[in-house]
Amino acid sequence: MNPAAQPPFSLYPELDATALGAFVSALESGDVTGLPPARAAEVAEARALAVFTRGKVTGADGDLLDAALWRHTGARPRPMIVMPSPWTSLGWLAYAVQATLFAARGYNVIAYSARGFAGSEGQVDVAGPLDVADGSRALDHLIERSTGPVTKIGFLGDSYGSGISQLVAAHDTRVDAVVALSTWGDLGEAFYENSTRHVAAVKALLKAAAKARLSPQTQSVFDNVLTGSDVRGTLRWAEVRSPFTHIKELNRRQVPVFFSHAWHETLFPANQTLRMFNELTGPKRLALSIGDHSGPEMSGVLGLPNRIWTDAHRWFDHHLKDIDNGIGDEGQFIGEVMWSKTLEPRPTWPSVTEQLQRLYLADGGELGPEAEAGWTSTVLCGMDTPATVADRVVESGYAEMAGRPKIYLTEDIDRTVAAVWTAEPAAETVRLRGTPRLRVTYRAANPGSTFVAYLLDTAPDGSAHLVTHAPYSDLESPPDSLISADIELQATAYDVQRGHRLMLVIDARDPFYADANLPRATLAFTSPEATPSYLDLPLG
């Protein structure tokens, strides 16, 4: 296939626009010819209970937003759900099946394409004030066209729509509950994790929005992330668009929020969403699963059985219909353990971690219980190693969900361009549960430095799987100064089997991140006696 014939890049590669379009056509006409039996049954049930129509919502500044409505007739009081679209040229069509399922359960529903995407006018505002106003206008539109009283209101979104949903809930007091799938809490942290620019994520967002109409400000901000320009201005832009900034409004009203996320999320890493989750004081629930962005919930978008969407329905049934279905008593957190797929419920996120085990970085590449000072491990910058975050944004997560996680061959990691520390073989299964923390000191020969730390689970044959990772950049220290990095690796739930070793790899380049190092510069890692370098492992 030549490049011109390749399909456009999508953050949702599993979605089939043709199949979704056929489903919507059947909703309009009642002709289910060609639909799979399950989809045909859903169409028949929905049409017997509700009226499906397409429409246009008059959004902020008079821009018309493409929308679809599922409405019940009669004067019976009903709850309603508003669904802002994901970051895709499909717009609201991505929600066609799930919105139909909500309608069949008695909800009035509106799904709409966010401004600048698909059939909606306006320009992409990235969950800015215009998008927040659009969400409220979509709610107005549905209320005005509902024949009975409105009881309670929920906002649900996947990815882009999830951030918009949280922000609308923070600004519009009519919103009673939120479901936010593959979401963000702090957009600035997602773009600049530990001062390191997430260039691969921003490139993926731009490619996925190739058919969208970005506002000049949006294009400028994305360009700034890619080039490293105007970091302060971009962080101010991101602050307005971060639900974490508006958490007081959500807490004041005790808005119930259900989050889902993936452990190896490459667009919006989990820790920034966890920080948002931990600060919420109202009813809340978080599901963390194997995979990458939108992967854990994708089968449900396609109409297949999916535990994330099942819980989303239960969340709204409980908080919008006052149904006692048990979800309020099941604990705030449920995690899927890599790679066993075991589900572990816990009452809170902090209760996931029962104790910490500290391993020190020592001379000779040992990761052990005793601190050791005075050693140096030097890394040459400018060269990549087999230790990387993933092969591809989003898509690598689908291989993980299929039980085919990336295999790292640790013997191929060049020790001149990476520093490596390895623990003793595990005498019994090590249950990593929570957020590992790394403290390491290094000397950078030049101004500006970046490293990426990877925690690997290494089998006796030297093959390994990625447990977690984190980048770090220092952009201000003078040349040849000692820099102390104290960082959290991304949260994890991982069982290291007996006989396997934990391996910490630190290198100076990864294509997922911007690189502040000068070519051929060096980073010399060490462990001062007063502040030894160590890795804290959360055990549960």
Automatic annotation (TrEMBL):
SMART domains: PepX_C
InterPro entries assigned to the protein according to its UniProt record, in alphabetical order: AB_hydrolase_fold (IPR029058), CocE/Ser_esterase (IPR005674), FrsA_esterase (IPR050261), Galactose-bd-like_sf (IPR008979), Xaa-Pro-like_dom (IPR000383), Xaa-Pro_dipept_C (IPR013736)
UniProt GO molecular function: hydrolase activity
Keywords: Hydrolase
Keyword Chloroplast attributed: no
Pfam families named among the record's database cross-references: Peptidase_S15 (PF02129), PepX_C (PF08530)
Domain Xaa-Pro dipeptidyl-peptidase C-terminal: 313-536
Entry's family note: Belongs to the AB hydrolase superfamily.
Protein name, entry field: CocE/NonD family hydrolase
